[in-house]
């Protein structure tokens, strides 16, 4: 069966794979060159970044949920062969189960990110006291 192509000539999902690659590389770059280098965000920055993380986790969960029925339809759309001695239908079923588990885990992660957002929303950076008489603990 010939593989279908998108308008750009790439296989379906190729643009999604490219987008996921770009996002992954951008996040890893930010972690490597900003956060681990001691230049992490202030409370307002962390709040904004956590808000974006909430949306990213939600989108990834939506992706996992959308992929499961696509994979479930593979036996009807493709002639499948497994590279081991297992029936391809078993691999399809396992893939669907794992996508459901992934969706659940991403939902849990999104909930945790919302808790981080809620907690950090109560924090506000106060300008340093330039007189040198106040300590960090003295600020409300």
UniProtKB/TrEMBL annotation:
<protein>
    <submittedName>
        <fullName>Uncharacterized protein</fullName>
    </submittedName>
</protein>
